[in-house]
Amino acid sequence: MFTDTATIIWKESREFLTVRPSLRGGWAGLLIILAVFGVMFPLQSGLDWLNAPTTILIWAWLPFILVNSVIADSFAGERERHTLETLLASRLSDKSILIGKMCSAIIYGWGITLVGILVSLITINISNWSGEIHFFPPLIGLSVFILSFLVAWLAAGLGVLVSLRASSVRQAQQTLSVAFLVLFIPLLLLPLLPSELQVTFQNALIGVDLQMVISTATLTLLLIDLVLLLIASRRFQRADLIIAGN
Amino acid sequence: MNEFAIRTKQLGRNFGQITALEDLSIQIPVGSVFGFLGPNGAGKTTTIRLLLGLLEPTRGRARVLGHDIQKEAAQIRAQCGALLEHNGIYERLSAENNLEFYGRVWRIPTQERQARIKELLTNLDLWERRKEPVNKWSRGMKQKLAMARALFHRPKLLFLDEPTAGLDPAAAARLRDDLEKLVQFEGVTVFLNTHNLAEAERLCQQIGIIRKGELVGIGSPGELRAQTGKPQVIITGKNFSSQVISDLKARPGVAAVDQYNNRLTIHLEDAIETAPLISYLVISGVEVEEVTKSQSTLEEVFLTLVNEDEESMENLDVH
Predict the structure, then answer these.
(1) Which of A227, B82, B93, B127 fits a disulfide with A89 by CB distance 3.0 to 4.6 angstroms?
(2) What is the ipTM score, two decimals?
(3) Nearest CB neighbour to A242, from listed B54, B87, B88
């Protein structure tokens, strides 16, 4: 199964990196993302960029956006371009196709996030050079690494579920945009809360055990990711995919 | 070893209230070409999907290359090649990458894969353009590439859904030659969905005619003509008067008479003696230049079988 999954990743990577129209014009977009997250924010925040717990949220949010931008195409795109049935008529197993598609999106989203982290580390070290290398504290570094991966997986799982049933890429993208808003509206609304509530919230955050919060978030995300993978495996029915394409 | 590449018994598939395929029972010998003819929406594509295990049958059963379509679909797909309704080409990838991908899918070792890509693309005159994204190509070129993909792993059984659609006559003829060679030298079995009757007549040892999901005729082209088609006499000559034509129509055993310029076609109800007909024409002053006796064409057989059911339904409505 590993070889077959790698074959799907090979094909998807060719489409992501060389010819996907949303990315052809999107190389500039990727550079902007790297410039903002890898250079601008670290320069503004200084060493806090490495030490503040909010950095975990930022690096966990980025892969969600990146995976979301490509995952809608995974099955809906193949259906729209009439390549899905030929793929399903090949010897590839259901699991290798599904996991291959998810892994491609995860590698893309998480990979760019890791590049962003590396660029930000270089920026911080150049701008704050004091003769020694600055790095994330172990807990934050490990959290950034693991949570960004789990969030990429979450986005891939949600995206694949939507893309499996969507009749077009546009429909899948619209559904995923709604999901994105539902997930992130609470964060966006936070600054709009009355100031007393915001202070209470911040005090509550200061009092929490960061290690405990991260462990809970990691386990919760892992559980959700596994459930999504299970649901996607169950929903991947060749007959349904073919009938949905007619 | 199995004698038959495909065996189906009362295979059927419904989509809700609609019956897409009804009680299909066929046997296709290994190393033969089976042509499946029928109008659009007759159930040809559904049949291929069922045989590849892409759809579950509603009733009946089938074995493909000895494997049950419901329980062993993966084994079936592993041994088959398919060019389906849509060519399935990744248009934003190059021809080389399309074949490279499917070569990896079929787990062909790297060196052999590279050699096979070169061999197939060279044979199809596509080698020089292998690096171009396929979306810049003509429909015929894409169809050729799709055919190369279907043949890439040298499958035992090939499902082809309108393979020559969109090809220019020369390319279509080459493809037919290649198919004939595949069957002759490599023992490949071909299940061919086609609208092209001449193609079916030339390539197929056995033909099934399907209408509204129901198999209305099956046999070799000759058998189908003998079962369904009526003999006819074609006379080339001069002086076909309307009196002569109406006299001919009134004679026993004559089903119909058509005249087109210097050509008279007498459709017979049975294989009756034709000499008295010719003698009558000569006596009546017709200058006969050439007489040809023939069976109906496959097209006529097809139209008869496909329209028969419709006519009987219309008659039912009348009565």
Answers:
(1) B82
(2) 0.84
(3) B54
